[in-house]
Amino acid sequence: MQLNISQQMKLSQQMKLAPRMIQSMEILQLPLMALQERIDQELAENVVLEVETAESETAAGDTEAGAEEFENGFDPPEIDGKSPDQTELVVDNDHNNEADFERLLEMSAEWPEDNLSAGSRVSSNRIDEEGDRKHDAIANMAARPQSLHEYLLEQFAFFECPPRIREFAEYLIQNLDEHGRLQSSLPEIVQVFGKPLDQDEAREAQRLIQKLEPTGVGARDVKECLLLQVAPETPYRDALVTLISSHLEDVARNRLPVIEKQTGYSMDTIKAAIEELHKLDPYPGRGFEVRPVQKVSPDLFVDHDDEGKYVIRLEDEYTPRLRISQYYLQQLRNNPDTQTRDYIKKKIESAKWLIESIEQRQNTLRRVAQAIVDHQTQFLDKGPEHIQPLKMQQIADVVHVHVTTVSRAVDDKWIQSPRGLFPLKHFFGGGTITDDGEEVAWDTVRIKLKEIVDAEDKQDPLSDDDLVKELAKHGVRLARRTVTKYRKALDIPSSRERREY
Question: The whole model's pTM is what?
Fold first, then answer.
């Protein structure tokens, strides 16, 4: 093998995203609450950013026209007759946007000295308002609810028992899972406990725990949990105990004739016992599970205009209007220190990118949402069964953007419509062609399938083959496996399990 060093020329194409474009895509993908957090973070880190308020506008006084010109200075110029909303973001990395800064310096020279303190006043007000908002949020935060273990330990404190049994019982309580069950056998738990304790004492500790509320805690499996909840006064107690002990799987599969044959109970008694069984809770501890509820705030609203057409309105309560501090613009012009000027220049450039990214996000989101609403007018007029098949590529073609832009725009975004609150992704989905040549969305097919099942004779329910035939009567022809998949997705049991005796 021969090793040598040589020089070669190679021609290749590479796509590199400027930092400004990366930031624009990130801002577009953020949902409303995340965007608010991003703005708060930028306000905290970038000293030149301000929130426009009524007080700051009043302080500006006669400079409103100059400020408006300053804002317009950040908009991309018209290119080939296109509006700024229709042009791509362009970064002049070769000249470091020197023309922008020269224009800023010229405008800042025309502003009165009285306005130089407006930035500091707005910053001070912003800090006060931010502190008040966070204080109110903490004051109104719900207290942490009581856990299952805390609730059981609180009850067990009133029991009288020897210290060794009490210590082991408290250890058992701490080892219950979120459903209130023991995941290991009693001898295994005693061995892990590591302190001298005989089996009688261990069983006594478990028996005491099983007396606590909610009834059923401290069991080792589903059967024991359900049996603990059967009281002497429970209706059809004997039949219920028999079902729990020996026929839970038969009940789950609706094999009532098998139960009738093996137990000798009448069908009416079995059905009555099953009704009582449904009142028992196989997971008595799940009521204490605390899962944080995600707050959903709509990014968009659907309104009617004067002509009755659906139009999109953006939620702007959580996206304050941002501006660049006049004080730091003046510092950029007058400060003789080169290092300070470079620092302010960098911060102004970062703030300008953020402002433009937010504006582009709002424009793209409005256009994408309007195209979706225009396509789903029948859904808004008539209801969910009239939703139309829709692909993201169709919206991308209407809005004249890439399909990945549509995907980012609808990701984790919510819209408040006359039909309720929906994620934007809800309006996308495939469909099938009916015998009439009409394209029907899969959601419409699922709704029709549920209607057919709800209207069937429960004593002679429809099989999946029968469901295929019923859907064909409505012009929708599907394979049996597709119907089975949709039936399971809708959590509809099989025909044997749906049968009523």
Answer: 0.60
**Angstrom distance (rounded) from CA 218 to CA 171:** 12
Pairwise CA distance, residues 132 & 124, whole Å: 13
Greatest extent of the chain over all pairs of C-alpha atoms, in Å: 100
Q: Write out the chain's pLDDT in tens, 501 residues.
A: 567 777 778 777 665 555 667 777 888 888 888 888 888 888 888 888 888 775 555 544 443 433 344 344 444 334 344 443 443 434 444 455 555 555 555 555 444 444 444 444 444 555 555 555 555 555 555 556 778 888 888 888 888 888 888 999 898 888 888 888 888 888 888 888 878 888 888 889 889 999 989 899 988 889 999 999 999 899 999 999 999 999 999 988 889 999 999 988 999 999 999 999 999 989 888 877 666 566 778 888 998 887 888 999 887 766 788 888 888 888 888 877 888 888 888 888 888 888 888 899 999 999 999 999 999 998 888 888 788 888 899 999 999 999 989 998 898 889 998 888 999 988 888 777 766 666 677 778 888 888 888 888 888 888 888 888 888 888 788 888 888 888 888 888 888 888 887
Give the SS3 label for residue 430: coil
Which secondary structure element, helix H or strand E, spans residue 248, and what is its range? helix 248-252
482 torsion bin: left (phi>0), alpha (psi -120 to 50), beta (else): alpha
Please give, one letter per residue, the 3-state secondary structure of 352-415.
HHHHHHHHHHHHHHHHHHHHHHHHCHHHHHHCHHHCCCECHHHHHHHHCCCHHHHHHHHCCCEE
Q: How far apart are CA 48 and CA 123, in angstroms?
A: 9
Cis amide prior to 292 (ω within 30 degrees): no
Which tokens sit at 69?
Answer: 């010109």
The two beta strands, 414-417 and 300-304, are: parallel
CA dist., res. 6 & res. 412, Å (int): 52
